[in-house]
Amino acid sequence: MKAITNLISVILISFLFSPLTGIAQNNIESNLPFDTKIVYPYISISKDQLVKAETLEDLNYRYKSSWVEQFNSVAITTLQNGKSKTEISSNDQLTKKQKELMIQADEGAEIHVLINYIPNNTLTLKEEKQIDFTIEIDPFKNAAFIGGHSQLKKYVTNHITSKIPEGTFKGFDLTVITFNVNPEGEITNSKIAVSSNDEETDQFILKNISSMPCWIPAEYAKGTKVDQTVAITIGNNKNCMINTLNFKQFTD
Q: Would you state the pLDDT for residue 8?
């Protein structure tokens, strides 16, 4: 009888201290989905797209030539060698000088477009109006976590998702944290862009993303390093709120 009692005691002790029981007690969400994306400016194009551009619509897909009945002027302004330069045309077809101005602009310089036009509408008296927009050229290399996506996944798993209780994210729950990687690779201006509606969890994720080690900053072809906005998503990426951000898929 004593031997049976001792055997039962050994089995109970083994069960209580087994790894499986530890995981059940921690009740963690180790496989919670996450993704990383670049948050682009409202209007941006790649250098290759700029080289191939022939019209204003090629520069800005949101602009429509059908809005215009008559062009009075189209001015394109940017920086060359630190100095502001402008080239003007009479319609939405880019001139050779306008294209050269944009292609030879300083790395990271914004391109400003100002259109003076008569609108295409049914009004008898048509007054001149203006459309203006700013274009940014995408960096040659995006910001990247040191060691690439595999190391970023390891960081997120070890510091975030493995510590979130199972069942915290349900259905379409999603947290999106956006942050800037500055030219020194530092994480700045981190904030909750989309909330899971669990404030404690959102703040936990924000804190750990804000304290990430430095990244490799984004840079242009000639080596100019620039600030870039990145987003880390945790949860269900089918959440419709994700469409409110100007995402492009992250690659490293």
A: 42
